[in-house]
Amino acid sequence: MSATTGTTMSTTSHNTPAAVAVITGAARGIGLAIAERLAAEHHAVALWDRDAAALDAAAQRLREAGARVHAIPVDITVRAQVQQAFEQSAAALGTPTALVNNAAILGRSGPTLDAALDDWKRAFDVNVFGALTCAQVVVPPMVAAGWGRVVNVASVAGKDGNAFAGAYAASKAALISLTKSLGKELAEQGVLVNCITPSAADTEIFGMYGEEEREALRARLLARVPMKRFVRVEEVAEMAAWLCSARCSFSTGAVFDISGGRAVY
Ligand SMILES: NC(=O)c1ccc[n+]([C@@H]2O[C@H](COP(=O)([O-])OP(=O)(O)OC[C@H]3O[C@@H](n4cnc5c(N)ncnc54)[C@H](O)[C@@H]3O)[C@@H](O)[C@H]2O)c1
């Protein structure tokens, strides 16, 4: 798919002068909301997603809102694609100053004792190793520049566990731990690494289920949220935008709850 570039937006004192954010899984849902929020905060946005058609539509929407956009289809589990996406996005927009590791899959649900190892491996391939690969490719220039922000989109499931979604929950726990390790490693280099742990948002991540199964899952998920509603994607984006900005200056390796009261630690 071709790269897409829009018009230039002005800069703001909230961010570095040439704020450029890479957002994975940006074609829809939480990733798209984060991209829109960051663009509104005067970031140029590099949209990475494996779904080329949805990516085109997302890029179009952002361009129409006046954002500087580079969109490129990439499967984050394939290192060569991540490297190529990085080079093309950096050439189009400038070297990234922020990385939002948002792409993930829910994977197959079912009893953990019956789970196929391959299903667990697939969840870890995307949700953990994909995020690690993106960090390994995108973050070194931030370290060299002495400034950068990484936001890993984990889940409250990574803290609490979720019955019948064992692979997803374990992969998000690993992403939380990756955040803490990398945050500590880069703490003196000007690159802050944090993660957010939303409770359920009503997005297409549940799209593989039939309507009946989806409704039952929704009800189960909401029953655990004291506020008794889904988090809005814009609420997650608000938190991510702060974590990508210079306004966040003394938090790293940290886990930011956005679960309507569900998380107890
Ligand atoms: N929706 C929720 O209830 C919820 C709750 C907590 C955390 N989260 C997390 O928020 C993030 C976004 O979730 P969402 O609900 O918007 O999901 P979504 O399914 O709506 O969007 C995810 C996007 O990631 C992309 N993607 C998946 N695998 C990819 C790969 N290998 N390479 C590139 N792109 C890939 C998909 O194409 C899709 O566009 C995920 O990390 C998810 O785990 C979601």
Task: Output the keywords.
15% strand; alpha/beta; 3-oxoacyl-[acyl-carrier protein] reductase; globular; disordered N terminus; 45% helix; 7 strands; binds nicotinamide-adenine-dinucleotide; 8 helices; single chain; Rossmann fold; SDR; 265 residues; NAD(P)-bd_dom_sf
What does this structure look like?
With 265 residues, the protein is of the alpha/beta class. It has a single domain, classed as NAD(P)-binding Rossmann-like Domain (Rossmann fold), CATH 3.40.50.720. It has helices at residues 29-40, 52-64, 79-93, 117-145, 157-160, 166-185, 211-223, 233-244; strands at residues 20-24, 44-49, 69-73, 98-101, 148-153, 191-198, 254-258. A 7-stranded parallel sheet has the order 3-2-1-4-5-6-7, sandwiched between helices. The longest helix is centred in the middle third of the chain and has 29 residues, at 117-145. The termini are far apart. The protein binds nicotinamide-adenine-dinucleotide. Nicotinamide-adenine-dinucleotide binds at residues 24-25, 27-31, 49-51, 54, 74-77, 102-105, 126, 130, 153, 155, 198, 200-201, 203-205.
